[in-house]
Specification:
361 residues, mainly alpha, 69% helix, globular
Length: 361
Amino acid sequence: MEKLNTSILKTKQHFEILDGLRGVAAMAVVTFHFMEMAYSDYGQNFISHGFLAVDFFFCLSGFVIAYAYDDRIAKMGMLEFFKSRLIRLHPLVIFGSILGLLAFLFDPFGGHIELYSAGKIVLVFITSILLIPFPLVADRAFNLFSYNAPAWSLFWEYVANIFYALILCRLQKSFLIVLAIISAAFIFYIAHHAGNLMGGWSWGTFWDGCARVSYSFLAGMAVYRFNFIIKNKLGFIGLSVLLVLAFLMPFSNKWNWLSEPLVVILYFPLLVALGAGAILTTGLRKLCVLSGKLSYPLYMTHYTVMWMFGNYYANHKPGTGQLTLIIISGLIILPAFAYLVMVLYDQPVRNYLSRKREQRN
């Protein structure tokens, strides 16, 4: 077997504003989930479209994967590509599953662990760390991944990566556009059928997740492949405001089926194009880098607290003042915890696996 040139594996220069926007989107998801637990009526949720951050993640991923691997996947090989993605993504899949299991077993505010045998609890954990959908636990709203609900999007991220390595990396730009148009039609279909684009996390909405990743990943790739990068001076702050506006869009049961697909199909790819072409001021560089690094650990660890918060809210019904204090505290503590996870677990594990990989090559 030919020795792999390790220089091929080195990461290219980052688009730091896009890194920063990823962090903004992650914070929007956390805020949305807090509000979702407290207000079942999405009309009362000021960030009622925070769930669309997942579609923005998918679009970013398509752009970044195409940028990072289009010109080197043939040299590095499919196996090395999959190793790269596993090292990058899977340590936090495992860690999030462990946190979720602990929260399920030791939630101080509720739960019905006695309804589940030890065998079922272990089976759900094994499927979780292997990223196999297994919606078994009623106490977890029959999520595809009962111990770490956001892992549903990681499942589809893995699927997109597999298709990229097998097909999309070699696909001509014209065929890429055809697939994107078909996927856009799929987006409109599920939005019209369900009334919104909130699905993907449960067995009943499984294929909604497929539609969401299909279009956004392809759109992100198209932004890169067609060099649709718009030079501008909006900067990180300006683009963050534009991104957050999408999440703050009013929730309308009558018009969500139209407004949400339009945001996903047109607005998010435009923001990626603007983010890739924006000028970053020196003073915000460190903030963008840190924001990007924290986004994935935050996304993959925050839902452990959400289940406990939901049980606390259901049992104690805190008033508005107390509820506000809890949510604001959570929005400070969870990123701090994600930072510790990143420094003490994720980075060391990924560095260790990368060293082992280089030694074997």
